[in-house]
Structure formats: C-alpha cells, structure tokens
Amino acid sequence: MTSPRRRLRITVVWSLTATATLAAISATPFLLNAVTPAGLNWDRLSSVSQTYSALSVLFSAAALLGVAASIAFQARQTHIQNEEAHRSSHRELTALTLTHPDFLTCWEPPNTPVTQKRWRQFLVSNLIVSMWSTDFRLNLLDEQGARAVAYDHFRGEVGRAYWANSGASWHRVSDGGSDRRLQLFVRILDEAYEASVASGPPVIAADYFVPQQPPRQPDSP
C-alpha cells in the first residue's frame, strides 16, 4: 500500500506538471506571434491551429484532473486529521474515567451485568476496537488485517466478553448510519467473534502470562 507521503509527492508532481503544461499552452500564441516572420500565411497557420486547439483541450483536461486529484488528497488528509483529533479526545475521556472510577457511571450502562473491574477492561477494549475501526474506514487497515486482529482479540477472555456485551451497541451505531465501511467493519468483527467462539473456550486472563520466577541465588562456595 502506497504511503501517504509518497501519495502526496505523486499528487504534487502531477499537479505541477499539469499546471506547467497549461501555462505553456496559454503562452504559446504570444510566443508564436513574437517569432513569426513578416509575410507569414496566416490562413494556413489558422488551419494548423485548429489541430493544435484539439490537443490543447486534452492538455487542459489533464491539468484539471491534476488539480482535482490534489483537492481530493487534501480533503482526505483533512479527514484523517479530524479522525485523529476525535480519537485523541476519546483516549483522554477514557483515561480520565480509568483514573476516577466514579466517572464510570457517566458512560452508558453495560448491556450485560459486569463488575466494575470488567467494565474498566471493556473501556480499554473499546479503545482498541475503535482504533481498528478508524484505520479500517481510512483504508489504513484492509479487510484481511481487520479479520486477523479481531480474531486474535476475541481469543482472549476480556476481548470476547467485550464483544458479547458491546457488539449490539456497535450494530446500533453502524446500522443506523450511512457509513458502509463501518457497517462492513462490524460484520467482519461479528464473523471473527463467531469463528473465535467456534474454535473453543477463550484464554482466561489468569493464563495470559507465566508466573515470574524469582532470581536465582548464587551457589554457596
């Protein structure tokens, strides 16, 4: 996948090329008039210019396409910046809630009864899934990648419990809107969740890590 920086360079090059070409086309009649010798048959030159005019239309169209591509790229960059600002605000709200557990009740209530500890874990899981959602909608994460990370996430106890609780909320948001990428993302997570459940019980949190071994004492001389 082409990086944003490379796409920007390509767009700028095409825009500059198209602009320079259009400028050269516009200046050509004046240059011809300056270098034309006296007594030139202008009727013949006019006939030739008809063919030249057809070519100038093509070059003008290419210039307009370059400008349109530049505008589209700028619009995409603005959209990415807005999404990042939204994600940053979401992170700050979640961090504030985790720091002050009394704020947990400022969010929507869980769809299923859970402990306060599990609800805090759900908030972090929501941050993770929301990050994937943004990347997917911006085409920074493809369908195969989204399916892979979601399947691994749902192999864990917390991730699987999160989607069992919050999947319905994601559906209410996506199904009620017009964002087709978001709708596709939610369907992908549904399928990854079902595949993970079909693979067997989740890995419980207590089994995520092996116990830390105490440091070995040096042998006595």
Topology of helices and strands:
Blueprint: H1 4-35, H2 42-99, H3 116-137, H4 143-155, H5 157-175, H6 180-199
Helix pairs in contact: 1-2, 2-3, 3-5, 4-6, 5-6
Mean pLDDT equals 81
Q: Could you spell the SSE succession in H and E letters?
A: HHHHHH
Distance between the termini: 61 Å
CA radius of gyration is 30 Å
Q: Would you mind describing this structure in some detail?
A:
With 221 residues, the chain is mostly helical. The chain has helices at 4-35, 42-99, 116-137, 143-155, 157-175, 180-199. The longest helix is centred in the first third of the chain and has 58 residues, at 42-99.
Task: Give a brief rundown of this model.
It contains 6 helices and no strands. The protein has helices at residues 4-35, 42-99, 116-137, 143-155, 157-175, 180-199.
Brief descriptors of the model:
221 residues, mainly alpha, 6 helices, elongated
